[in-house]
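Q: What structure does this chain adopt?
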Amino acid sequence: MFLPLRAGAAALGAIACFVLPVCALAAEAPRFAGVFGDHAVLQRDAAIKVWGKAVPGSAVTVTFNGSKATATANAAGKWASQLPPAKAGGPYTLAVSDGIQTTTLADILVGDVYLCSGQSNMEFTVRYTTNAGSELNTSNDKLRFITLDRVAAITPQSELGKATPWQVVTPQTVGDASAVCYFMSKSLAKTENVPVGMIHASWGGTFIQAWMSKEGLGAVASYRPGLDALNLYASDRAAAQTQWAAATQDAWKATEDDLATKLQWIEPKFRDTDWKTIVPDVIWEGSPDPELTTFDGIVWYRTAVTVTKAQAAQAARLSLGPIDDVDITWINGVKAGTTYGWNTPRDYDLPAGTLKAGRNVIVVRVTDTGGGGGLYGKTSEKKIRFADGSTVGLPNVWRYKISGPIRPGARVAGEPWAVPNGLTTLYNAMIAPVAPYTIKGVAWYQGEANVDSPVEYQSLVTAWMNDWRQKFDNPALPFLIVQLADYGPVASRPVNSGWARLRESQRLAVKADPHAGLAISLDVGDRFDIHPTQKTVIGNRLARAAQSVVYGRSVTPSGPEPVSVARMVDDLIVTFKNTSGGLVTYSGNTALGFEACTETDCTFVSATPDGDRIILQGANRIGVIKVRYAWADSPYVNLYSQDDLPAGPFEMEISQ
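A:
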């Protein structure tokens, strides 16, 4: 929110309009970029980057707490400068003037600023957390936050979409703050005794690839064809769509068994009378079908709608409401589109000629990777709207058939421009407009959407961190990453787990980066809910990691971390660091979840703590080459440090 212009400045502007031919331009006051506002927090002890818009060619002066900086607006009206470092404190005013008009922002503090980003677990707000009532009456002038609107773009944007203005934490506002970000910032404000500002930019169900710039994602060779297609899409959408469709038309087929049969399901003439019926207004777990109650995988839906000859001659838009998680939609055997995102409404444009007078068959193939699945939302959202404004509603009752679980290792490439999971699209719209802002660090809670490609995630996280460091012009920018919580089935025997493998990718990426920290959340999740409510612990663990990684305090950043696995006669010895004086097991004298693995299989083994070591009795067998710990979607864990921090999952080869 900007304060009103001063009366004197406005009068001068009126005089300038009277005598100058550029009166329309001169009437526009210089302004700051949208990320700045009343109640904002600026980063302490570092050059403060400021930028905004003004009349092209005009000279502007920025003033703040006795400091001054100047800049000249370019031909597009953009200006940028930087103020000298400031100590923590405030409140101050921040102003920009072109000598005629001035825009002033009030109640500005200087402290530490964190960018909090990711998917739905970072979006999760304070009001829905465990014991939220103790926080909802909180007032804290030292804590401020801004929540960015969820928008996507094909190319980098210089302006933010609609954003919630900077807000001071009060009983009226705190419930809407990102919970993980808030609890981390609350802890840091106390330990560092400085104001903390939170810039929150998240979107549920999103891939890390959407949060990277084209330069950053281009460092991963496999994404360059998609980036090329995205670049073409920016200038010629039809050509890009044709090119991408040709390149990926068969990709989804790799995820299906009995493909010949499934291909028939797309055809309008296919008889689906033996399929079950469903009213798709709730996720399929909420349907009466017991087969769907806990099902994660692929389900096909079919329905038909009748249109007139006049309607069929028009262009139209097919709306299906939200679908959890990924859909491919065909109409009359022709692909209408595909979208990723569990809460993203599906809207597909249908060129004139797609629909036929009479019966039109709609087929939707839904892939659910976890949690709820399927078409849901109000029946009224499911319709076809024609170019003349008329609509036809889709039937209440659809037919469906369970195809099966996702084949291991299979993955479908979505369109590079899809919302919200197109390549670079969230970086372009939500990060690029704030990237010059001087920040202390980044907190990141993401990865659930990437579980189907867990090995690749390690290289993506590394490329993403390097990318944002370059964009924020800070090669040592700290990253604080939440390792995924437990979610999904409990394993009664050793299993191959995509969730465990993604956690390992997170661990290894952080381990290789001297400016990154990891917050383990394996013991505070909910195996029945992908959105655990115990965000206080996660936020506090992020703050602890920050104490070590960001502030250089002599504290262990996280729980026990494996250093090596060695052979000793009949046993294997796993050595840890960061135990704070020794390993502890809860609810027993042995540690649960250790496995000894050969090339082909793994076996649970007995594990006894001994100071900083775990002794795996009798595990040094012929063929054993590595050790795994807590390797499951939802493992039971009871191994902790003396500081009550859990050991995270890992896989490690035997060193000797």
